[in-house]
Amino acid sequence: MKSFSRRTFLQVAGVSAAAVGFGGVLSACAGGSNAGSGSAASGEHASQVTVSMPVSSEPDAGFDPFVSWGCGEHVHEPLIQSTLLTTKADMGFENDLATAYSCSDDGLTWTFTIRTDAKFTNGKPVTAHDVAYTINGVANNEASECDLTMVDKAVAVDDETCEIHLNKPFNALLYTLAVIGIVPDGGHNADYGSNPVGSGRYMLEQWDRGQQVILKANPDYYGEAPKIERVVVVFMEEDASLAAARSGQVDVAFTTATFADQQPKGYDLLNCASVDSRGISLPTIAPGATKKQTGEEYPAGNAVTQDLALRRAINYGVKRQTLIDNVLNGYGQIAYSVGDNMPWSSEAMKCEENLARAKALLDEAGWVAGADGVRAKDGVTAAFDLYYASSDSVRQAIAMEFANQMNELGIKVTPKGASWDDIYQHQFSDPVVWGWGSNSPIEVYNLNYSTGNGNYSCYENAAVDAHLNAALANPVVADSYDEWKLAMWDGENGPAPQGDATWVWFANVDHLYFVAEGLKVAEQKPHPHGHGWSIVNNVDKWSW
């Protein structure tokens, strides 16, 4: 994948865009050195926007819902394809391709009625057969990053009715269906990612791998016609994104807390709230165990973090706001769990900073400070390694700040930067700085269920599992929220800080963008993990 440093971007920005592979797009929307005078300055470009995203936002497999487009780690509305449902800002549901849906009393069959006025860009109408084909295709594709293991099969009863049969009640499926783009029955092949056929608001006009994607409005879209008719997405590193804004080459430029104070002339800073959480897993079991993940077996357990008092002390002793101020320059919100401020989040996860209480917990549990200030108990020193992705400067800074704060408790933390391949060897045996966050309660399940695929703390609690199962079994999603909350703390059981303290959470990272003056970005839903496509979920409603 080709990326642009600030130096190389400045070198190419002033020459012919065609010569550097931008197809004339960036030079066409540049309105001079005064940032913000790009698309808005010229009537011919008043319905176009150019948006920069991190290079990691470019989908390796293309615009293919069978693999990772719209789903996986970075969930977003797929734009090119329609979805059965969409989510609102309050995480309620709205119909899209579906006009109605219902669930059987046993929670095992979801029935969707499909609209009759939608058609694919190849001219064929969208039917329930296409929906069933897509759901089955995603569920059976080993390369898919979308978890549909709860789906037994999807069946088209007729052209307008599709049934999705589950092998267990799982109402969070609705959130997944809000990001799975529907493709034509039999229309998926090895080349689909580069030549996608959909029925969504936009069509793929051009894809220059490693550089840019151009989307154009679908003239046959069944919904309201997009106000923005052309969307250009350029993939850049952080410094190149800033340089592109300074030279007026982009209308929306992603940025981070590191660059937020360098706001270019003619741009406003857009601060999008997120559920993009940063936290550390704390293995709860003794070393010597193993856990399986995707068919492989890994060492599990940690001699230090297996101690309950120590895990609780970490949660009470960490200074979350200080971390946000020092690492994120204030661009973040304190987080106590994954998915804070969502309808399913629990107030019981909140943990007041109390250094005295943290030290008292350690004292009472027999963790005694040595001459070097580091505590020990029964021959075990309160010291552990903390892994973080070496390519992520924010996670590195979080690890360093956390280590400094733990010194005050007499806990020695050694940050270790590594590649993800190396980190996964330690995922169940050592604390890791993770990034999570989704517009769905599914991550609450994955991180806390005994067999959840994100249960890095190796936590098993039958009462918690029962609450999570009960939440998923409710055929009315809104009625399941109380069970999600009880799964965090029901007064006796749960991963909350006053309970089993299986994680320590720090912050939800604000997603920051420089936006050209004159461009009205529509109201944003909370952004999930991944600083990229979520910003353009509703780009069709933007305007100059």
Automatic annotation (TrEMBL):
GO cellular component: ATP-binding cassette (ABC) transporter complex; periplasmic space
Protein name as annotated: ABC transporter substrate-binding protein
Species: Senegalimassilia anaerobia
MF GO annotations: peptide transmembrane transporter activity
InterPro entries attached to this UniProt entry: Peptide/Ni-bd, SBP_5, SBP_5_dom, TAT_signal
Signal peptide: 1-30
Ranges that cross the membrane: none
PROSITE patterns documented for this protein: PROKAR_LIPOPROTEIN, TAT
Similarity comment text for this entry: Belongs to the bacterial solute-binding protein 5 family.
PANTHER family: OLIGOPEPTIDE-BINDING PROTEIN APPA (PTHR30290:SF9), PERIPLASMIC BINDING COMPONENT OF ABC TRANSPORTER (PTHR30290)
